[in-house]
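Summarise what follows for lecture notes:
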Amino acid sequence: MHLHGTAVINDKGHLMIGGVSTIDMVKQYGTPLYVYDTALIRERARGFKETFQELGVKAEVAYASKAFSSIAIFQLMKEEGLSLDVVSGGELYTALKAEFPSERIHFNGNNKSRDELLMAVKNNIGCIVVDNFHELRLISGITGEMKQHVKVLLRVTPGIEAHTHDYILTGQEDSKFGFDLQNGQAEEAMKQSLESEYIDLLGLHCHIGSQIFETTGFNLAAKKIIEKVAEWKSAYGFIPRVINLGGGFGIRYTQEDDPIPPGQYVKEMINAVKGETARFGLEMPEIWIEPGRSLVGDAGTSLYTIGSSKEVPNIRKYLAVDGGMSDNIRPALYSAKYEAVIANKAGADPQETVSIAGKCCESGDMLIWDLPLPESEAGDILAVFCTGAYGYSMANNYNRIPRPPVVFTENGKSKLVIRRETYDDLITLDQLLT
């Protein structure tokens, strides 16, 4: 068993997170329940920032909020001095409601609407990451009408294929994201940005994928970008003030995963950028990064109540829980793997191998296959680790199942930060036929 952050097992054999018993939290908030270890999130945030500070490099660490968006998590990131990467009008709206400093908000995404861009410009956000020529024209039009300047980065695809799942590759040449660095698209976008009266081009952005366990891809991306920048300086006099190398730093979900320390990604990125800029006689730019999963992923734990069971002789034993693909779609979407324990028997040795089924009316609703557990019964609490990224943010109401609540724990206290949806919530938008 691998425990993350502040998680421990108390003398009753119960799983504790943030100094609070998971069994007590279940009694108070019910199940399913997302629990976040905020001390671990703070530790990770400070680790990224401190690495840049120790190496004397000007930087911004922007939380990639698509991993988990809420007013409370934005407030926590604000407390830790991070910036924020949003990818939709809804995430931007949430950030503004959380009173997150607008100058530290970056707006990413491949198909921002005019209304979304208008919201960004009106609220003076710190940077828009421009993904395509359509968006560049929209921004030029909006800023021209408003007579208002806006800072932008151009998202480029450097042609790097990171070692990750095909669905989460984003930096290779054949991608829906960004301007291609090699075929002239990025250069044309740079020229158009420099010609626009109200666009302030800060630099370039790339993101090569997610759940990455090595630094080679980031280093190659930096090399390709800076080589191109050297050409542009010679031809156009353009010198980027910022290079954003994205995120995608991997975490440990199971013993099969072997992530490197977050600070190592940062150190090797810095070394790559320093080496390449020195090689071409360029000024050292600010380095921005966008960790998401690596900040919140292993800080999250999902708690479920075990209900029915089914044994297929000589084949498999199924245990069903009161959640599933409606609160964690990653196993169905990515074949994602997780580890779990029975929270009220966390100190007990495994006695059987079971597979964890969700309650959705879908044969693909399986959370974990072949999980070693102590002998279990209906009413036991199952704790699934590392569900803090893309759990709640991808949660849905399939089968009209309400989404679970979210609780933050730290220093022996728990706080409800998102309430449980009710059946009334599910029909709020419905209209009667007559």
